[in-house]
Amino acid sequence: MIRIQGLTKRFDEKHGIFDVSLEVLPGTIFGFIGPNGAGKSTTIRHLMGLLHADEGSATVMGLDCWKETQSVKAKVGYLPGEINYPQDMTGEEIIRLSRHLHVTSAERERKLREVFPFDSKLKVRKMSKGMKQKLAIVTCFMKDAPVYILDEPTSGLDPLMQERLIEWLNAEKASGKAILMSSHHFPEMEKTCDRAALIRDGKIIIEEDMKELRRRSTKTYQIELRDELAATRLAEVMGDRDGLAVNVEVSSTEELNTMIRRLTEFDVVSLTSGTDELEHLFMQYYGEEK
Predict the structure, then answer these.
(1) Max Cα-Cα span within the chain
(2) By CB atoms within 10 Å of each CB, which of 22, 130, 163, 290 scores lowest?
(3) Where are the alpha helices (DSSP H) in the chain?
(4) Which residues of the chain have pLDDT under 50?
(5) Which of 145, 138, 1 has its CA nearest to residue 73?
(6) Would you say 18 and 8 are in contact if contact means Cβ atoms under 8 Å apart?
(7) Can you give the pLDDT at residue 98?
(8) Burial letters for 22-37: b for 16+ Cβ neighbours within 10 Å, e otherwise?
């Protein structure tokens, strides 16, 4: 659905994107991760027909993103990283304009406005960042497109709206849509993406299935013991002590089983786990390439 092959755009010797390749299949979400200036937005601009590559190609559903940009735009729902609607227009006027510019679904619009509610009578200049983001989500997805390109889609959203967007994205994926999502928010990547790539200095330095990345990422467990002496003993062999608690990092099933066996020797009060540290794993790759 989305295919980028050997895409290169040189702004100068150090800036641009270089030999970028990736593919997004139907019914999948591809996570595009990287620091500011890494090349994510430049890549997306090629897909939207806003930049012409020096080398390589970018296609959506077999259509060339530069030569057939109008046809590509008709098949893509786009959520930009920076929302720049006319400041004196109301949310309702923006939605009405979107209906005029694109083939939209009234049923999807109704459902989106229920899931991501906002005051559509307000002018854009009076909207909060979160409200403008919800307006952008509504106008993006009311277009029932086979392909979506999303740049930092949860930016400005509160936790409840973030979870609702994650649910919406997973439903879109289940219906067969192909989604390319650029984000710095790792929890949303873990909950939605099937595959992810890290880009740095215009080059992709790792691309992997999310299941494999989760398998290789670390998890931190906090173990609270009955007394300080026991906590000291446990910390000496497998972690860092914080009062009666010991923090243990586990990065494989073997390490997890070793931890469980050792805990049978102690009087454990509680055992809690954090989320997978996918961000830590990516930053390890990021650091190794420097």
Answers:
(1) 71
(2) 290
(3) 40-47, 69-75, 91-101, 106-115, 129-141, 159-174, 186-192, 210-216, 228-238, 253-263, 278-288
(4) 290
(5) 145
(6) yes
(7) 95
(8) bebeeebbbbbbbeee
Kindly state the tokens that stand for 146.
């086979």
Tokens read off for 271 = 């055992």
Q: Helix axis angle, 106-115 relative to 129-141, nearest 10°?
A: 150
Backbone angles phi, psi at 167, to 5 degrees: -60, -40
Residue 27 identity (one-letter amino acid): G
For residue range 239-257, list pLDDT tens digits in order: 889 899 998 888 777 888 9
Distance CA 185, CA 169 (A): 15
CA angle (237, 242, 243) in 5-degree steps: 105
Q: In what order do the strands lie in the sheet with 16-24?
A: 16-24, 2-10, 55-60, 63-64
DSSP summary character for residue 183: -
DSSP state of 276: -
Sorted by where each starts, the structural domains of the chain and their CATH numbers stand as 2-208 (3.40.50.300), 217-288 (3.30.70)
